[in-house]
Write a structure and sequence with these properties.
Length: 164
């Protein structure tokens, strides 16, 4: 294991990182010694923010938390997790609708690498209804999303301006 203690990798597209993600990372830190927020370069989604922007925003958000590291990754998640010598892949579950996708992903990752366990935390009820997509949709239409994303993300969205 890299350093000491249990390391969990928290992977995602984070386009952008939301308060729901932040809450999950903080709760992950109560369980694991270190959490690596692993920002996916290759993703089935077409991200609005470049990989470097998604990483930079997340780094700003967790700058004061020494237990959290933010890194980009590409290729297979389990290979990245193996390189990090992570014991756990951490994921959040918001609602039953997340379950099927998460179940498939967890089983595929287990098929690929049996020594890494996927663990789930229930998303805090305050963030049950948000997703990166719904926040982007509201923001593009001029909605106020200030309380749904961390400040550095909000500032970045403001810099981009509303609309495409
Ligand atoms: N609070 C609020 N929203 C949350 C949340 C939480 N706690 N947890 C997840 N979400 C939302 C996100 O905002 C996101 O919304 P969106 O679909 O509108 O973008 C959605 O739930 C899930 O996104 P995210 O957490 O960013 O993960 P992801 O599903 O985009 O990530 C990867 C998928 C990157 C982990 C996966 O594709 C991967 O591992 N890729 C690498 C290649 C690989 O190994 N493939 C085989 C894996 S089976």
């Amino acid at each position: 294991m890299e350093g000491t203690g249990t390391l969990a990798v928290y992977p995602g597209t984070f386009d952008p990182l939301t308060n729901g993600h932040v809450s999950l990372v903080k709760r992950g830190c109560q369980v694991f010694d270190r959490v690596v927020v692993a920002v996916a370069a290759s993703t089935p989604k077409a991200p609005m923010f470049k990989l470097s922007e998604r990483v930079a925003m997340a780094r700003k958000v967790f700058a004061d938390n020494p237990s959290v590291e933010v890194e980009p990754f590409s290729g297979l998640l389990v290979e990245y997790a193996r390189r990090k010598e992570a014991a756990v892949i951490l994921r959040g579950l918001r609602a039953v609708s997340d379950f099927e996708y998460e179940f498939q992903m967890a089983l595929m990752n287990r098929h690929l690498e049996r020594s890494i366990q996927t663990m789930f935390l229930m998303t805090d009820y305050r963030w049950m209804y948000i997703s990166s997509s719904i926040i982007k949709e509201a923001w593009r239409a001029g909605g106020d999303v200030r309380w749904l994303v961390p400040d550095p993300v909000y500032r970045c969205m403001m810099d981009l301006g509303v609309g495409d």
